[in-house]
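We emphasize that the prediction below concerns an isolated chain of 685 residues; any contacts that depend on oligomerization or on bound cofactors are therefore not represented. The input was used exactly as deposited, without trimming of termini.
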Amino acid sequence: MSKQQRKPIPQKHTRTAPQVHEATDNWKSQSPSFFNNIMLQSGLIFAFAFLLYANTLTHGFVLDDAIVITDNMFTQQGIKGVGGILSNDTFFGFFKVEGKEALVTGGRYRPMTLVLFAILYQFSTGPFLFHFFTVLLFALTCVVLYRTLLRLLSPPLTLAQHRGDPSSLLAQSGPMVAWLATVLFAAHPIHTEVVANIKGCDEILTLLGCLSALLFTLKAWDTQETKWALAAGVSFFIACLSKENAAAFVVLIPMALWFFRSGTASPNTANASIWKTSLPIFVAFAAFFLLRGSILQWRFGGEPMELMNNPFLKLEGNQWVKFAPAERLATIFYTLGKYVQLLFVPHPLTHDYYPRQIGIMTFGNPMVLFSLALYGFMGFWAVRGISRREPSAYGILLYLLPLGIVSNLIFPIGTNMGERFAFMPSVGFCFVVALFLGKFLGKNRNLVLGIFGAAIFLYSIKTVVRNFAWESNEKLFMTDAEVSINSAKLQNACGGVLFDRATKEKDLEKQRALCLQAKPHLDQAIKIYPNYKDAYISRGGAHYVLKEFPEAVADYRRAIQLAQDDPKLKTYLALALRDGGKYYGEQKQDMDNAFKYFNESWQLNPNDPETARLLGVANGIKGNHTEAIVWFTKAVEAAPKEAGFLWDLGLAYSASGNLAKGEELRKKAMEMDPTIAQRRSGGGR
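Result of the prediction step, given as a C-alpha cell string:
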C-alpha cells in the first residue's frame, strides 16, 4: 500500500474524534455540575441514607434479633462461636436442639451476618453498636449502588457504539439516572423493616455483595484486569453466604454485560467474552452451593402441614389440606401485585403478612387479574428488550428475578410475603423509575426534579416516622396489629406481650386490665388458626389471672392436645385445676367441683404439697377426718420444713378425736415457726 493510500485513515480518525468527545461529555451539558461531582454525591448519598435511619440507633433488639443475636448460643460466645456458626444451620444456634432447625422449610445457611454479629458481640452486648453497624452498612450499600449504576450506564464509549448501541445514548444522562435511582432507593419506606431490624443485615449484606460483584465485573470487562474479576468472585461468595437470594445475580451479572457492554461485538465473540468475564461469579456460586449442601445435608424443600410455616393450607372439616393449584397461584399473584402497590404507595406498612393477612384468593379477584396482566406485560417487555438491549428491560429483570426467588413460585418461603423481600427487587424498580424520569429531564428538568423531590420528601418523612414503630417488640406489635388484623401470628404476639406484662405486674387491678386487653388479640389468633398452641397457652394464662378457671382449664387442655410432649403444659393445667378447685370451694361453696378439680390436679402433679393440703381441707370440711389426715400427711411429706402443713395435720388429728397426737404435732409446728399459731388463728385452714 502506498503512502498516499494510508493518508485518509488518520484524517478520518481526526475528523470523528471530536464527535466522540462531544458525545462522551454531552451528559455534562444536560446535568447541573452539582450532579457531576461523583465524590460529593457519594458523600451526600451516604449522609442522606444514614440520617434517615439515625433515629433507630437508640432502639432495642426487636423481633428476629433474638434468633440471630440475643438467643443465639453461638453469637453470644463472641468470636469463639464463629466455628459453630460456620458449621451449622443458621437457626441451630437459636433452637439449640438437633433437628428443630429443620422446621424451617429447606433449612438456612446464612453464616456471614452471624459471624459479623458474633464479632460485634465480642465488643458490646447492647443494641447500639448493632444498630450503628446496620445503618452504616445500608448507607454504604446506597453508595455502592450509585457507583455501580454509574459504571453500568457510563461505559467506555467507542465510535461503533455511537452508531446505534442504546447504552451509549443512555450514557449521556447516565449520571443523573444513577443519582435518581439511588436517592429513591435510599428514601423508600419499604426498606424500614430491613434497616430498622438488625436481623435485616442479611438482606443488606447480600445486596451489597451482589452490587459489588456487578461493579467489579464491569471493571474487569472495561479494564481486562484480573484483580477485578477476583474481587467480583469474592464479593459474590460473601453475598451468597449472607442469603440465598443472591442466586438471582448469577443471571443478572452476565445479563448486565449483554445489555450494556457487548453491543459492538459479534454474537459469538460477545457471548464468549460474557462467559469468560462472568466465570468468577459462576465459580463462587458453585462453591457456595456445595458448601451449603454439605452443611445442611442437601435439604432444599418440602412443605410442612402447619399453617405458621406454610400459608397455602386451609381447614376443611377438621383437617388441614393444601390449596387447590388455582388458589395457590391466584394468592401468589395477589401478593406480587401487593409488592407493586407498596413500591409506588408504601402505606400502610407492616412487618407481618402471615395467615390470613393475605386471604385465599381466586382468579375472580380483580387485583389478581390486574397483577397477572401487569406481570405478563413486564415479562413480555423484558424478553422483547433482551435482543434490543433496552436498559428498561434489564431494569425489569433486575426486579423480577430477585422477586421470583421469594415469591413462592419457585419454592415455599414459609409466609405469603414480607416487605423485607422487596429490598433487593426494589433496585430494579428504582432503576426503571429513574430511566423513565431521565427521558423527560431534557424536556422539562424543573418539573421532573420538582415531582421527584416532592416524592423523596414524602418518602423520607414516612421512613423516619415508620422507624419509631421498631423501637421495641411491644410497640411494633401493637402498631402493626392495627394493619395486620387477620394475621394469627401478630395477634398472638400482641396478646402474648400483654400477658407477659401482666405476669410481671404487682398491682392486681393493672394485671387484670392487661389480661383483658390481651384476650381479644388471642381470641382473634385462635379464630384465624384454631390449632395455634401458643395462643391457647397465653389465653389460658389470661383466664387464670382473671379467675376464669373453667376457661383456663379448657385452653390448657386444648394446648396439651396440640403438643402432648410438652411437660410444662401439664404443669399449667394442674395449677389452673388446683386454684380453680380452691375458687369453687371458697368462693362458690361448690365442693363437688372443688373435689373434681383437686383430684385431677393431683393426678397431673402428684408431688404438689399445696394440692395435697387443699384436699385435706376439703375432706375436713366434709367431715372426712381420716381422709383429711391422709392428705395432710402427704403435704408434710412433700414439704417437711413447712410449719403450716404440720399445723394443719395436727388440727386434723384433733378433729378426729386424737387430741394428744394433734397437740404434739402443733407443738412441733410452733418450734419450727413460733408465729404459726397467731397466723393460723388457732385452727383456720
